[in-house]
Design goal:
The complex is a heterodimer of chains A (393) and B (223). Chain A has 393 residues and is of the alpha/beta class. Chain A is 35% helix and 15% strand. Chain A has 2 domains: 275 residues, Alpha/Beta hydrolase fold, catalytic domain (Rossmann fold, 3-Layer(aba) Sandwich), CATH 3.40.50.1820; 95 residues, Rna Polymerase Sigma Factor, Chain: A. The radius of gyration of chain A is 21 Å and the shape is globular. The mean pLDDT of chain A is 95. Chain B has 223 residues and is α/β, with parallel strands linked by helices. Chain B has a single domain, classed as Rossmann fold (3-Layer(aba) Sandwich), CATH 3.40.50. Helix content of chain B is 35%, strand content 22%. Chain B is built from 9 helices and 7 strands. In chain B, strands 3-2-1-4-5-7-6 form a 7-stranded mixed β-sheet, sandwiched between helices. In chain B, helix 2 packs across helix 3. The longest helix of chain B is centred in the middle third of the chain and has 11 residues. Classes of the chains: A alpha/beta (393), B alpha/beta (223).
Chain lengths: 393, 223
C-alpha cells in the first residue's frame, strides 16, 4: 500500500468500535496458491482481495449477499470511507435494519480486480519486478472480476449467494454472476446497467482515458512516486460525471447560476456553479482514485458484451439460471437507458427466468441508483423480503 | 386444504379470479397481462401453485406486485407482448383489460402466440342495462362495470359478447369454454348460451385456444 495517506478519523473511529485496525483496505485475503488466469489468457502470479463484511454468516451459510461496486466505488459500502471520511457509498441501503439488512444478511463487498483500494491492480506490486505494475498490468474484464470474487468466496467458505446486487458496473457483475455461476445465485438485482457497452459508452470512456494519457505526469503509466496525472484524471472524472447526471437535474440544480460572483468575469475562471461543481468533483476524485485503475476498469467495462460470450444471443447467457431477478432502471438515465434494461428483461423472459422489472421516475440521471429514490427502495425491500422468505431466511 | 380455503375467504379473492384460477392446472406457466396490484397473480401463485408472472403498465401496480414477492415486468401490452417468445406460457390471461387495449385484435393474436391458451374477461356492452341506458336515456352507459364517463374512460374498445365471438371466428380462434359473470363477479349459472348471455351477462370469461395452422416458428397463422 502506498500513496494512501493516513486514514480519515471517521474511518479509524468506526473501525475501532468494531475492534478492527485502521488499515484503509479493510480485510485482506491473499489467493496465492495458483496463478489467476485471466480471460485474455494472461496470468497473475498471485491475487489479493480487499473486502469488507457486515453482519454474520448463518449456520446454513445461506444468507450471504454480495454487493458489487461501480467504476469508482470500492469495498467501503456501509462504513465511513478511509480517505474521504464520508459515509459508505450505499450506506442509505446497507446496514442494520436497512433494505440490505446486516442484522439478517451477511453482506460482503470486495474491491474489484484492477481496483485501487487493496485488491490486485495496476498500483499494486508486480511480484516479478518488485515494482508497481503500472500499465504492465494485464487488461482485465468484468468476467475476470467476477471469477476472482467467486474464488474469494470459495476461500471464505461461502458456497452460494442469497443475493448479488449492484448498480452500473456493479450491475454488469451481477449479470455475469448469474450467467457464469447459475447454481450459485439465488436472486440477482442488476440496477441501472447494461448487458453490453454501447458505442456512446465507449466513446465517453475513451475521452477520459485520453485525458489521463495526455497528462505529461502520466509518464506512460509509471508515475508512482511522483505527483501522478491529477489534471488528466480530474478531467476524466469531470467528463464522466456529466454522464451520471441528467440535463433536467443539472438545470434544476445549477441552471446558469454564477459561482460567488455578481456578473460574468469575461475570463476562464469558474464563472458558473456547474463549472465549480465539476472542478470540485474532479479534484476530490484524484485524492482517492488511481489513474491507471481508471484506465483498466473503464476498459473492462468497454469490453463487456455478455451476449458475445454466449454465441451472440443474450438469452443463451441466462439459459441455466435458477435465480429470480429484479431489474431496475431510471427514466433520466441516458448512460444506461431503460432500453438496455428491457433487453436484459427480454432475454430473461426468453429463458423463462422469474424476472421483475421497474423503471423509476426521477431526474437524478444514472446516479439515481446510489440515491434514496423512495419507490426504488420500496421495490428493493419488497423483492429482497420476498426472496428471503422463499430462501427460508 | 381447509386452511387454504379459509385463507382464500379471508383475503376475499374476487369470484371471477377464482373462476380463472379453476381453469388453470397447478404447475402451469402463466402470464397475467395488465395484472394491476397482483390479486390474481397472488391467488394463482399461492393458492393454485401456478408459475405465474405479470405485466403491468402502471409503476404503482408493479411496485405493489414486487413488494408482494410476485414477478412482474413493467410494460405496455400493446407494445411489449411481441417481445415474448412463441409458446412461452401455458396460459396468457387478460382480465378486464381487453377493452383498454389500443389494438385489441393484435393483442388477442399475440396472446395465443405466446400462450398455448388464452383466458380473456371483459365487461359485456350488450348487457340489457347498457342497452336500456342508451335506448331510454340517450346517454352513454354508466354501470358497475363501466364506471367511467365517456370523455376519460380507458375503455376505448368496448364490445358485446357476440362481437367478441365474431372476432374469434374471424381469426380462427377456438372458444373452449365460456362463463357468464354478473357485476359482482359471481358466475351466472342460469346463463348457458352465449346468445342469452349477450343480453343477461354483465361480464364474460372466455377460455381460448388456437388449433389452426402454424408457421415454422410455431406462431399461429391467423385467417
Amino acid at each position: 500500500m502506498n500513496s494512501i495517506a493516513l486514514p480519515h478519523p471517521n474511518y479509524v473511529e468506526a473501525r475501532r468500535q468494531h475492534g478492527q485496525d485502521d488499515d484503509p483496505r479493510g480485510s485482506v485475503m491473499r489467493l496465492g496458491a495458483v496463478p489467476f488466469r485471466l480471460v485474455s489468457g494472461a496470468e497473475l502470479p498471485e491475487v489479493t482481495v480487499a473486502y469488507q463484511t457486515y453482519g454474520a454468516l448463518n449456520a446454513d451459510k445461506s444468507n450471504a449477499v454480495l454487493v458489487c461496486h461501480a467504476l469508482t466505488g470500492d469495498q467501503h459500502v456501509a462504513n465511513p470511507h478511509p480517505i474521504t471520511g464520508k459515509e459508505g457509498w450505499w450506506e442509505s441501503a446497507v446496514g442494520p435494519g436497512k433494505i440490505v439488512d446486516t442484522n439478517r444478511f451477511y453482506v460482503i463487498c470486495a474491491n474489484v480486480l484492477g481496483g485501487c483500494l487493496g485488491t490486485t491492480g495496476p498500483k499494486e506490486i508486480n511480484p516479478a519486478t518488485g515494482r508497481q505494475w503500472g500499465i504492465d498490468f494485464p487488461v482485465i474484464t468484468i468476467g475476470d472480476m467476477v471469477r476472482l470474487q467467486a474464488a474469494f468466496l470459495d476461500q471464505l467458505g461461502i458456497p452460494d449467494l442469497f443475493c448479488v446486487i449492484g448498480g452500473s458496473m456493479g450491475g454488469m457483475q451481477v449479470l455475469d454472476w448469474a450467467a457464469r455461476y447459475p447454481e450459485r445465485v439465488f436472486s440477482a438485482i442488476p440496477v441501472a446497467t447494461t448487458a453490453r457497452h454501447s458505442a456512446q459508452n465507449i466513446a465517453f470512456h475513451e475521452v477520459g482515458r485520453q485525458a489521463i494519457m495526455a497528462d505529461p505526469e502520466w509518464r506512460g503509466g509509471s508515475y508512482y512516486g511522483g505527483p501522478g496525472p491529477k489534471a488528466g484524471l480530474s478531467v476524466a472524472r469531470m467528463a464522466a460525471h456529466i454522464t451520471y447526471l441528467s440535463e433536467a437535474g443539472l438545470h434544476q440544480k445549477f441552471g446558469r447560476k454564477l459561482q460567488d460572483r455578481e456578473a460574468l468575469t469575461f475570463g476562464f475562471d469558474a464563472d458558473f456553479q456547474i463549472e465549480s461543481y465539476l472542478r470540485h468533483q474532479g479534484s476530490t476524485f484524484v485524492d482517492r482514485f488511481d489513474a491507471n485503475s481508471y484506465l483498466y476498469i473503464t476498459r473492462a467495462m468497454d469490453y463487456f458484451d455478455l451476449a458475445a460470450d454466449y454465441g451472440g444471443l443474450l438469452a443463451n447467457a441466462f439459459k441455466g439460471t435458477k435465480a429470480q431477478f429484479c431489474v431496475a432502471s431510471f427514466t433520466s438515465d441516458w448512460l444506461y437507458p431503460t432500453a438496455e434494461s428491457r433487453a436484459i428483461v427480454h432475454a430473461l423472459n426468453a429463458v423463462a427466468a422469474p424476472v421483475s422489472f421497474v423503471e423509476f421516475e426521477t431526474d437524478k440521471g444514472h446516479d439515481a441508483f446510489l440515491l434514496d429514490v423512495p419507490e426504488f427502495y420500496d421495490v428493493l425491500r419488497g423483492f429482497i423480503g420476498a426472496a428471503a422468505e422463499k430462501r427460508g431466511l | 386444504m381447509a386452511t387454504r380455503e379459509a385463507d382464500i375467504r379471508a383475503r376475499d379473492v374476487r369470484v371471477d379470479l377464482l373462476e380463472i384460477g379453476r381453469m388453470i392446472e397447478p404447475g402451469s406457466r402463466v402470464l397475467d397481462i395488465g395484472c394491476g396490484d397482483g390479486d390474481l397473480l397472488y391467488h394463482l401463485v399461492h393458492d393454485r401453485r401456478v408459475d405465474a408472472r405479470g405485466m403491468e403498465l402502471s409503476r404503482e401496480g408493479v411496485n405493489a406486485c414486487v413488494a408482494r414477492g410476485l414477478s412482474v415486468v413493467q410494460g405496455d401490452a400493446d407494445r411489449d407482448l411481441a417481445d415474448y417468445p412463441t409458446g412461452a406460457f401455458d396460459y396468457a390471461i387478460l382480465s378486464q383489460t381487453l377493452q383498454a387495449m389500443r389494438d385489441t385484435r393484435a393483442g388477442l393474436e399475440q396472446m395465443l402466440r405466446i400462450g398455448k391458451r388464452a383466458i380473456v374477461s371483459f365487461p359485456n356492452f350488450g348487457h340489457w342495462r347498457v342497452r336500456m341506458q342508451l335506448l331510454f336515456r340517450g346517454r352513454m352507459p354508466d354501470t358497475e362495470t363501466l364506471e367511467y364517463p365517456w370523455y376519460n374512460t380507458p375503455n376505448i374498445h368496448l364490445c358485446t359478447i357476440r362481437d367478441f365471438i365474431a372476432l374469434c371466428d374471424d381469426l380462427g380462434i377456438t372458444i373452449e369454454k365460456f362463463l357468464a359473470i354478473d357485476a359482482g363477479g359471481q358466475r351466472s349459472r342460469r346463463v348457458h348460451s352465449t346468445r342469452r348471455a349477450n343480453l343477461m351477462a354483465e361480464q364474460a370469461l372466455f377460455l381460448l385456444a388456437f388449433n389452426g395452422e402454424r408457421d415454422a416458428s410455431g406462431a399461429p397463422v391467423y385467417r
